[in-house]
Amino acid sequence: MLQSLTSDEKFSRYLATDNNSFEEEFRLYLRDEIVKIIRTDGSWSVGSILHQDVAKGLLNNIIWWLFNDDPEQTLLHLEELNNPQHICGRVFKPGEPTYSCRDCAMDPTCVFCQQCFRMSEHQKHRYKAEMDEGGGMCDCGDTEAFLRHTRCSTHEESYQKSKLAAEDAVSRLPEKVRERAPKFFEVILSYIVEFLTNEKTSISDLDESLQPSEKSDCFVTMLYNDELHTFDFVIDILKRALKCDEAIGSDFATIVDREGRSAVCIDDVNACEEVKKIVGTRPTAYFSFRTNEPLKTLVMHVNIVAHQEMALLLLPWLSRIVKQSEGLRKIFCDVALNEFIKAIPPEVGVSGMISPVERFIRCDHELWKTARNMYLQLLMNSLLLDAETKKKFGILFTRLYEIIQEGFLNGDHEHGHSVASMAVQLYTVPTVTRHLIVHENVIGVILRALAKSCYDGTLLNPDDWCNIMKLNTRRMKWAMRRAHHSFYDLRYILAILPDQMTADLKSKFIDGVKLFVQILMAMQGMDSITRKADRHIEHEPDWETGVNVVIKFNPVIYHLLQWFRTDVDLLFIMLKLCLQALKVLNESDPASLRSGVTVYNNQTYPCLDYDITKQPVSTQYPVTRLMSAIIVELGLAGMTWSDIERNEHIASMLESNSLPPMQLMECSLRCLCLSAQVNAGMWRRNGLSLINQLFYYKDYRCRQEAYERDVQLLQVSAANMDPNNFIVILLNKMKLNPESPEFAEYHIALMSEFFRLLISICGERYTPGVAVASLQEQGKRQIIHILASEPKPHSKISKQLPDSVSDKIPWEEILQEVADFQEPTSISSVGRYVLKPSMLAQFCPYSFHYTTLTDETKAQHEVVRRKKALQMTTVFIPPKLPQFSELFRNIPKLLCCDVFVDLVSKFLQQLTTGDHERWSDRLVEKVLYLISMAIIEHEQQKEMNPENDFDFIKKAVAGCERGILFLLKQLQVTESLLIHRDTVRWLVLKIERHSNQRHGSSSAVDPEHFILSREDSNEERDPTRNARKRKAQELRDKLLTQMKTMQQDFLSQNPDVMSGGSQGESMELSQVSASSQRENETPVCTDLSWQQETLKAMEPSYTCMLCQEEAVAAEGSMVMSALVQRSSVLTRGPHGELNNLDDFAPLFVDLSYQSGIHTSTCSHTMHYECFKQFRDSVNSTEARRRHNSRYSRKGFDIKNNEFLCPLCSRLSNSVIPVIPHPFIAKQRGILTDPLEDEMIDSQPSTSATPSTMREWLKSIEEVLKPLKLEAQEVVLKFHVDVSDMKNEMEKAEAADSQNEAEEVLEETVQALTQVDAAASADATILLEDQRAALNEFIEQIQVVGLNGDISEVHRPLTSWLSVATTVICSEMVGRLEGTPILAKSPIRISSALSGVIRAAFAMNSTSSEEQLSEVRDHARKLLSALIGEDTDEQSHALLNSNIFSLFVSLLFSSAILRKSKSMQNQPALRDSAEFERNILYLCTLAQIIQIFVFLNVDELEGIVGTGERREEAGAMYLACNQVRANAHLPPLPSNIDEDQLMETVTDCLHPFLRCCALLLFHVTGVPVPDSLETRDNQSSLLQYLGLTKNLTELFDVGGKMSLEPLIQRWCSHSDVIARVASLPYHVLYPVVSQVPDIVPFPHDYSDLIGAAASFKCPKFASEDSLCPTMCLVCGVVLCSQSYCCQQTLPGKDVQVGACTFHTLQCGASTGMFLRVREAAIVLLHGVYRGCFAPAPYLDRHGETDKGLRRGNPLYLNQPRLQELRKLWLSHGIAERVSHDIESRNIGHLVDWAHL
Ligand SMILES: [Zn+2]
Ligand SMILES: [Zn+2]
Ligand SMILES: [Zn+2]
Ligand SMILES: [Zn+2]
Ligand SMILES: [Zn+2]
Ligand SMILES: [Zn+2]
Ligand SMILES: [Zn+2]
């Protein structure tokens, strides 16, 4: 009966059920409906197998029962019933910024979200900004997270409200909802658990209640993700299995990767099995890279999949419900933690039931990614928002900890997507942790889990000491990849110190620590080594694992010590534990503590008989070191040795009532001696692994808990035993015992190490506990020694400081105290801290902070260098040291015990013999330093207590001929010790002074004073040092002269390099000649006489950088290497790929400047012939190299014609011929026949006047008429040869083409000049090579501009475009930098400009007749547009184009026009200077009119006029409105006044005038007036251009608007009217005249991260993008370096990344991007090349921070931003990329194509 019901009826029936039958009805309702949500009809596609609408409807219906109403509506209503939310609880997305407060946060994991932070007090504190990995939570409102300012102002407000209305949120729920909710959650949760946590595939797995009435035979093949197979492997196998293409395969693979699984086939069972068979084949390991496991695939019945999908849809809905309704959340939490799910063995729960949460946790590692993410999200939105449920969850989590870790370790999921990542939410909450330690023994739990993953043997009983576990290095190595998270968990727990140590807490804590000690026991002596005496070791043993573990354990030990410190009793218990542990260890190895004796000076001393040169020794003794740390803590607590011995805990386990220091320090001593012997070279045959281990032993990452602990243990032992015995033991262990000499060849080096160790033992007293020193003092000493070797950036200093310093004290203040900040000196450098000079005296040359001997020496040298520069003494006098604490008080006795004095005097005696074989300088330095330490110690001891029995002086003076003083005095005159003389003298004076004082006589000389006074003279007295110095000086001088000659050679060969360049020189020359003759006149570039003046200047000469020959341009065929690029920099509005060639190279460049061609050069010149040879050789080596090494990449690509400039290695792809200026002048018609010279001089120079202008316009119209005819003729000529003949007959008899006529002319000229100036080459004629080079250049412009197509038709157009683009860009770069347009510019820019301009001019002379007629046709069109002639066809709207570009085209085409035979008699063309002047005039006018028409009046409002020029402004205002009326535009709004308009128009016109001036300067060579070199004022510019001084005069000549008809014609063009009607914002003035800019950056870097965190992959909208990358040109954000957004290159079967693809579209093949999360700029060039650069953000220490790892807030740095802008605007990206690739000679294989 039920089957016949419709869906609606079923729904009504479902709604009507009550609590009791809900489960049954719910299942009944889903039973047949569920399958409808899957697209079984074949309409499914990648990533969408659901009928979304159907699924949503069904979901909605299910929830309807709970609310008994529309869910969305009800939820909104329920939200209003909440208590005000005073805890933020925002769950972070990956990459979202988080903020922690260094001043107020309990620990660094306590963070605010961006919104809360911006509303909080912490903004003003020292905060830290970081990026979340995803899954973290905002702690705003959590009273346990912050010391103060717990809430942001928003949540504080809600908190105040909630205090008023603290009512139970549950009771406020509507009654029906409240009743139904528990049942609803229970049923839904068990349904979800049923389908997500059990693997079901066949329909028979379905529960009886869900068996559908009709069983479909549809199945699904599901592919699951793992981290073992590569993307490419998956794509490949899917291509085969599904017979799909690469793109589909890639989409499937992406879904699998992102969501954890994907349906790959929906079909009948056979088809599905078939797919499974192929996809599930076991791959050969080669293809899958890491494994030969098959991919996991399942064939499932469609109903199972449908239920799973429904469960997945329900999870986020539950999240929403519990998030929005507080009452429902409370109910939900109760249900979720209630045990009602049937447990599956081995799960156990109360009566065989467990809670849904427990089931999820237990199955976590089996779930696929989406399922896991969704349930975790649900837990965060529910359990973690309430303190009580958080605690319950914490308990459950801890009980399951081992299972969680095991699952995580064995799985391959990322930590952030695993339930294991919840630890940070739970274990950082003090109340929860406290409870967990006491009641759940969480420390033990974590340690057990850790032990299980790395050790053999088990940790079961904390008191079972005999069961020593064994470290399983192999397993540990494997586990360490993932187990390190457990260390973090432990750190979270320990980071919270208890307020008070209750008995309960203490005993549980000790239980945990016992396990910890057991773990350490397993590591005691691990990776041990035995010295290889004869043969080298065969294979290097693994050492990394051990070091890694130690690095992981160190922070744990650090936190444990903080705990111990809270209670002295705890320290004693810990010491006892360590002693017990050592006892057990020693008992297991009887050889370890065998006692023996050693003899020194006929006296026997007890020692331990363990020979490290024969028996195994290790660098890892963690138990010993833990003990050392505890003893130091006891020292800090003020204990003495006998206090320790008498303590109840210790005494109870001592056999002879005393602690034997000798045995305690044994392991530390072994390790230190090992290190000494290795340094001395005794262990060379043991290979690198030993060296590495010892490196880490002393490196700042491990040193604190290794090397330093060993030294401290030796210190405590030395202090509490006979000092003589101690030194003898040391000598014995090191193999230095004089009684039984061994290893004689290492004696000197070993002695040196021995004394160094002694210096450490006596001198290292800054650790609190060892000495009476504060953490501040310790930190200060460390910072001084870190900075001694060189100035360092903040990040390096903070990295090298131990946690105890960087966490506990305001070390940055100390840094300020000891060092000066040095701002970054250049764009690429960072800020550094330099040690203050006053701190140099604090330096200890043998500080144990230096990891290697090299570090130490470097620091010593640097300090000596600086001291010398500051004229300070270079003798290292030991600084005054802090007093030792009680426990260590006796250490100084070492310095005056008999053995020490004996050793030193014996050594000094050896020195007096002068036998070099017996000592080294380093050894002498150390001994002398020790003596000075002893003297200083003597002073200190006497100062404290004059009766002290420490008396070094007495011992030094005694002994006559063998006494120290006597020997030192002898050494003063020993020749071979001259370099130590200052130190020796200082010592002698010191000792004498003290001994004199003692005898009552006062010393005459103060040693300090003495040294300072002697410092100067001492140089001369020291022959050896002097000799060395002289030698060095000679060498330096020699090198210097060499350099100088080289430099001079280079300069003489390349004069342009230093003088500002060849063009610069020519400028100078012309200027000199000009100013000498026309001193009082201001140059005008359009004036003919001025132009001719320039021709008198000498042509500069150039040097070929390849053959070093010198030549002037006219005879040498010189070329400059150049780079031609397509450019989209000037594009206004959307950037897009242009495919239509006519669009690309139009005659009229649109105002929006869609695309351009940019040319730049380094201006290094060479012969064209030499260049060709050079390029051939490069190409052939390149071809060979490519053949050999497939993988190495180069900065240039010969396929694109690229090469590197042979001198400066700049990327180039073409050459620009150097065209002599006279040639251009002739082309322009300025240089006429030499015979006409006089005539030219007599010609009056006229300026544009209205009357002549009107006449001129008329005559142009005349010009156009015959041109039209001619154009038609040309067209005919192409087709009909006969007409060609006819044409030719008509025109001229001698020549049949323009070219020939020209040649004839040239020949004549040549002949004439040869007569005139026999020797000098004629600069007006091009050589054959020059023509060839010119052709090559023009072709390259076309290849680049037209993407490889060479079109004869576009030849002139592309070269004009290149000129226009290059000029406009350099104008803009100048504007960006604020330089006047005609200021002397860098050679590179000015040569590029004149090179390009001249080459484009010269192009005409190499053109064929066909091209010339083409040009003439272009010229005609340009002119007719300019005069606005009402032509029938093709008249172009002038005002829609870029006027400057139009001017360039007009200028260049007119030269051709003029030379046309038929034109020669036209009056308009006869005077070329007048012609140029007139078109400039008209273009300027057009530019102003364009500004009037395309003016964004809204933008004007903010502009404030200057208040000057009122009259002119009035005329301008009137004119503007008139023009606007012509263009059918409304008049200017009344709120805009005349001044505002004037100001705007002036500003907008300025760039145009600057461009014209720059162009005409290079075309004419007329010198720049002084006024323009320093400042661009508009009137000087106008004057230089030969225009009127007044803007209004330009268009309102004489107030009569005489050009009115012309203007009207321009404005009323139909295209203009049409465009005005639809004005897009970005092509309006003033924006269009402004310098284009890259996208704006926010000031605070974290804002940028915040914005990018919400960015979703544009293709798979549900997914967060992994690497959001912003195009800096257009601002679009892309999903970079990801398979999901790859695209296929048009026309090629190549897949490229989103950025690479975008580069080709947006940036005309160069791109500039910001990888937001890494704070890195990516520069791309083409498909395969790129480089990284730092983002323009710096912290206050002048450093960038990739990926916000250090957390210092980063702010925008303007100079760096400016640098980026300039890089882009000046087209420097390609060059920068090439330079980066070339200069970094590593196989740096970033796959740029896939970014
Ligand atoms: Zn927040
Ligand atoms: Zn807040
Ligand atoms: Zn704060
Ligand atoms: Zn040459
Ligand atoms: Zn160069
Ligand atoms: Zn994407
Ligand atoms: Zn872009």
Radius of gyration: 44 Å
Helix count, DSSP H or I runs of 4 or more residues? 76
How far the N terminus sits from the C terminus, by CA atoms, comes to 61 Å
Number of strands: 29
What share of the residues does DSSP label as strand, in percent? 5-15%
Give me the oligomer status: single chain
Mean pLDDT: 81
Strand order of the largest sheet: 22-21-25-26-27
- Choose one word for the global shape: globular
Poorly predicted spans: 1010-1022, 1054-1076, 1233-1250, 1273-1298, 1307-1321
Q: List the ions, cofactors and other small molecules found in this model.
A: zinc ion
- Helix content, binned percent: 40-55%
Query: Class by helix and strand content?
Result: alpha+beta
- Biggest sheet, in brief? 5 strands, antiparallel
Keywords:
1795 residues; alpha+beta; five-stranded antiparallel beta sheet; three-stranded antiparallel beta sheet; 53% helix; 7% strand; binds zinc ion
